[in-house]
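Materials and Methods. Structural model of Enoyl-CoA hydratase/isomerase family protein. The 244-residue sequence of Enoyl-CoA hydratase/isomerase family protein from Streptomyces luomodiensis was retrieved and submitted for structure prediction as follows.
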Amino acid sequence: MSTVTIDERDDRVVVTLDRPDARNAVNAAMIGELHEVCARLEARPKPLLLTGSGGVFAAGADIAELAERGREEALQGINSRLFDRLARLPQPTVAAVDGYALGGGAELAFACDIRIASETAVFGNPEPGLGIIAAAGACWRLADLVGTSVAKQVLLGGIRLDAERAHRLGLVADVVPAADLHARAHGLLDRMTRSSAAALRLTKLVVDSPGGHPYVDDLAQAVLFETADKRDRMARFLTKETTR
Ligand code: COA
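The predicted structure was written out as tokens:
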């Protein structure tokens, strides 16, 4: 790996975007390496913590590469296919965003299930200023996350969302000093790892399933109701063995 660092633990994987000289801009090499991360997490599902080095999440797709791309590359959906794959990972994904999350960097954070921000986090999609659209998810994921009105402020108005506004809008779960960002994100993952992995996986599938409610919810519940893990967890609650 040359553009990301990977810390694989028993119960989670921490991936750090690591091209500080280019403000962690997402280039083709990083796309390839993040596909490898996805392949690993599809084979052995674990929660993912995604973050950036050097006080930046990611300053966008790599503009030097974008400048050389034409219609064929656009139709390949180089970034959007990766972000869609990331969004469909079986276990939850958390983006810990410090500093800039712009363009493709913002879209990468939007593709995660939950975002936590440092006080310096800034989300924005300046793509029209470069003569292109935010084609890797912002045009629809951002509207899903914060509503069409705010999405248009960002995508058309070039308005950046600082950490405080992102928090008020629900785009981020929490805002903490940069020094506490990773601890807070790990705390969230700690809580997740205490839950049933099967229940998290099926919850994510159900939340993200386009239509099909309530039948898909019933099907997922039917699977979970038959597990020993569910019976154990409920028995521990009823016998007051779990902390509440
Ligand atoms: N693609 C490629 N290189 C990038 C980049 C990007 N998206 N963002 C930053 N870089 C490079 C710069 O070209 C510069 O390289 P250099 O040192 O060889 O000149 C280096 O990263 C540092 O960038 P710089 O602008 O000097 O850092 P800064 O801290 O003053 O500003 C940003 C940070 C994020 C505000 C600024 O770099 C920026 O606006 N980046 C582009 C954001 C953007 O338009 N993203 C959408 C792309 S789709």
